[in-house]
Amino acid sequence: MPPSPDSTTHPDYRFTLANERTLLAWLRTGLALVAGGVAVATYAPDLGVRWGSAAVALGLVLVGLGTALAGYRRWRANEDAITAGRPLPANWMMPTIAAAVAAVIVVVAVLVGVEVLGR
C-alpha cells in the first residue's frame, strides 16, 4: 500500500487552485486595460489636445502591463507562502494599481473638460 500524502507537508490543492484563479483575474484585468488603451488610440478623438488620446492610451497600456506583472508576482509570493505554511504576504499592489487607474481617469476627465470648454 503506497503511503498517503502527509497533510502537514503538502498544502490543500484548493488553496493553490484559488490562487491560480486569482492570477487569472489579474491577467484579465490587465488585458482589459490594454484593450481599453488600444480602443482609445484607435477610436477616441484627440481629447482637447493633439496628444491627449495617445497619452491616455499609453497610460492604460502601461497600467495593464503593470497589473499583469503584479498579478504574477502576487501569485508567486502567495504560492510560496502556501507551500511553506506561512501567512499570505501583505498586498501593496491593489492600492497602487487603483491609484494608477484613478490617475488615468483624472487625466481623461481633464482632457474631456478641455475638449468641451474649447467648443
TrEMBL record:
**What transmembrane ranges does the database entry give?**
23-44, 51-72, 92-117
| Keyword entries, A-Z | Membrane, Transmembrane, Transmembrane helix
Carries keyword Metal-binding?
no
What are the subcellular locations of this protein? Endomembrane system
According to the lineage, what is the superkingdom? Bacteria
Mode of membrane association: Multi-pass membrane protein
Q: Name one Pfam family in it.
A: DUF202
Record's keyword annotation contains Hydrolase: no
Q: What is this protein called?
A: Putative membrane protein
Q: Which organism is it from?
A: Blastococcus mobilis
